[in-house]
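Researcher: I'm preparing a figure for a lab meeting and need a structural model of a single chain. I don't have an experimental structure, so a prediction will have to do for now. The sequence is pasted below. Please return the structure as tokens so I can convert it later.
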Amino acid sequence: MTITSEAQTTLLRDPVAQELLASTIPARLAYTWRDGTPRVIPIWFHWTGEEILLGAPPNSPKMKVLVERPAVSLTIDTNEWPAKALVIRGTARVTILDEPFPEWLLTAQRYVGEEGGRDFLALVKQTFSGWARIAIQPEEVRLLDIAAGKFPSAWSSGSHA
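Model: Understood. Here is the structure written out token by token.
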């Protein structure tokens, strides 16, 4: 599935979406376990302008189900008031690689600085025999910006779906 024009416009042009996508706030990735129960984990991310990239050890629990159950949601949100949150739904595509993908260094450097990112990448390469690249292409995007009066449409319409 390709990114919708509405989702792309929000992600590429909205200043709050841009702020959250450039932040060091971990995303919260939601996925469904084999028994149908939900799971949510904090995870570093990298926005390419077209997709959200996540990295993980290939043997991590989420990797056991993302191929079978690729429908995911993630949020990047603030702790300060007035609240801001970017909620993205999409489908995860997983590729197992021999080593971390190039954008993973950029991801690590954004979170822990240039030297810390290189050190973390070296630790990943030393610790794991491979690395998973999880690509999520946004299919639906909702933005919450209390200060600007932007509420996800489901909230404003009274729907709880």
